[in-house]
Amino acid sequence: MLDFKRLQRDADQGVLPALIFLGDIYLNGYEEDNIEPDLQQAIKYYTKAVEGGSEDAMLNLGYIYCSNKYMEPDYTTGIAYYEQAAALGNTTALGNIGMCYCNGYGVEKDEKKGFTYFMKAAEGGHPMAMNQISDMYREGIGVEPDAKQAAYWYQRAQEQKELDEKNEKEQSENNSQNTESSFQTRFEQNLKFISKDSMDTTFARQIFDENGNLRQFTLGECMFPTGKLLTADPLYYLRDPKSVCIKEKTIAPGSYPVQLSIMDSDIAGLRIVGARLKVSTEDAEKYVLANGLVEKDGKMKSTFAGFPVECGMACFCDEQAAQSYWKFLSDWYNKHQDGNIYTDYFAELFAQSYKNQPDYQREGGDLLLWTNPLDNSQIAMFASGLGDGYYTDYWGLDAAGEICELIVIFLNPELF
Predict the structure, then answer these.
(1) CB crowding 357-386: b at 16 or more within 10 Å, else e
(2) Three-state secondary structure call for residue 115
(3) For a tag site, which of 36, 129, 234, 357 has the least CB within 10 Å?
(4) pLDDT of 68-112, one tens digit each?
(5) Distances in Å between the alpha carbon of 409 and those of 131, 193, 269, 306, 323?
């Protein structure tokens, strides 16, 4: 059974794989959960994915509106989606637009224009477009007949087809021979994993040990002068005091190491699997939810554990550091009213981090122990596994029941 509540929550936060997966579910139905096809719901989720820049969603919507399979064709709308994907260089979209012009689907028939679109798709490596170009040269459709060009593009199409089949076979051999080998399915399984309200102690220990493909990296000692902690997306939610909450439990004020578990995956690439704030040298014997505090009816009450991510980043942060961060942001935006704090400020710092530690992060930078120039307070920032979503965090308790660590695990490495 699907963890539908979690899947929809991630979709509501704009997580592209979740949006596309829900679109697929509603387009075709999902027998295991007794979900009937619902075209309008499918269109809704695909449309949100398009807003996030998904080429797959653009193609899906183009097909829905143009194929005559799901509705009476609305070529104007469908072609508009194909054009969005074509502008990104998508060869399938280019070929589909070429077909529309060659046949007059939703546009005035224009074989020359159709030829232009097919040529762009063929030059981009699409074998079916190469075949189409060969036929058009041979028959003189939209272009002057040219037997040599027809033969050339036919040969290119066969070579590209053989290359694609070879690559597909190699990929299939490298992965399991079932649908569980797909990234989409593994993403779905990871949604279930990160939504759990409990953490297995043995599993967590393995995450933060040198284990198989996992490598450990200490980002550095981060200062926590009040011992009141926050976990948040530092580039989105942490910017707004109303969007974050202090943890219910506290730690002794001090400086503590921030440790990252990193995986090199053939499927997902280099990813941060988990992050740990190590408060003592003791080992965790069990894990409990790291609930936050919210004000309700004039009183501070315990609320949910975890935090949403919108910009693919997470952090460990002291309350004092958060307050200094808000002051820094206010000052910065007063000086850069049309600026973007990431592209205009943090991007350079993350790029330098990559330059200093290229073996532990992707190009562009995935980790940063940031020092606030206002007061030298610190925030430990790091990429959140597969990106946006909602992640649960846990306190690790030692044999005496004392806090020895705070952890968040972004993905199950066994899936990737």
Answers:
(1) eeebbeeebbbbbbeeeeeebbbbbbbbbb
(2) helix
(3) 36
(4) 899 999 999 999 999 999 999 899 999 999 999 999 999 999 999
(5) 48, 9, 17, 11, 26
| Closest of 13, 105, 100 to residue 51, by C-alpha | 13
The DSSP call for residue 344 is I
Give residue 11's pLDDT band: very low, low, confident or very high (50, 70, 90): confident
Which residue is associated with the tokens 């070429």?
98
60, 67 contact by CB (below 8 A): no
**What DSSP string runs through 129-181?**
HHHHHHHHHHHTSSS---HHHHHHHHHHHHHHHHHHHHHHHHHHHHS-SSGGG
- Gap between the Cα atoms of 8 and 195, Å rounded: 12
Polymer length in residues for the chain: 416
Q: Is the pTM of this model over 0.70?
A: no
CB 412 within 8 A of CB 282: no
| C-alpha of 300 from chain center | 34
Phi, psi torsion values for 94, nearest 5 degrees: -60, -45
Residue 247, pLDDT > 50, answer yes
At 400, give phi and psi (nearest 5°): -90, 0
Residue range 346-360, pLDDT digits in tens: 999 999 999 999 999
Q: For tokens 């579910």, what's the residue?
A: 25
Q: Which two tokens stand for residue 81?
A: 């989606």
Q: Looking at this protein, which amino acid is placed at residue 28?
A: N
